Amino acid sequence: MSPRSASVNEELRRRSRERLLQAAVELVNERGYEATTLSDIADRAGSARGLVSYYFPGKRQLVQSAVHRLMHRTLEEALEREPRTEDGRERMARAIDAILGLARDRTVLMRQHMAGLLQAEGFVQCPEQKRLAELLRDTVARHGSGDVDADYPMLRSLLMGAVFAMVLPNVPMPFSTMRAELFDRYRLEWELGLPPETSAASGGACETDLSRFFATDREAGDQSK
Description:
11 helices, 67% helix
């Protein structure tokens, strides 16, 4: 049997990492951060325990990367859904709805994520976090910002504050209230994006299958078939 090529090995490593990210999100969403161990994550992903340490320095870094992946893929999907648009106001509305929707639909996961950001290490600088930042910066630019370097951190802070308010135990702020505040801040009409009444009317519900958010690179996946 001939040895695997470098490209095949790289694809296998990427898929292993994706499985670990997906397993981390699923388990923390189900059990919470403290009740989820690295061994649990490795078992759910069907990976050896040592692979977790190979890809990530520790549980906090793994979970943050996993949540940032879910966030950036959710945001990406919202921005590019049909009918696709280049309108900056619509794209800002979709971005706000996407992030607030995660706080509403995956409260435990986002609560654990926000708690992790308050730890000493703060943001984990990983590809997932960088992609999320790129999408939000692009949203700010398309919305008409004259100073993206100043306006992007403001949008990020406002979204984080809204998510924090929505995931507070016992006294969470409602989705509609936080949406109204942000829409007013960015002068967006309520009917833009995905208004909560539209989502409810369409029977929208929190999905349990997260696999599409953690699929390997589409082009690489197509070539491997």
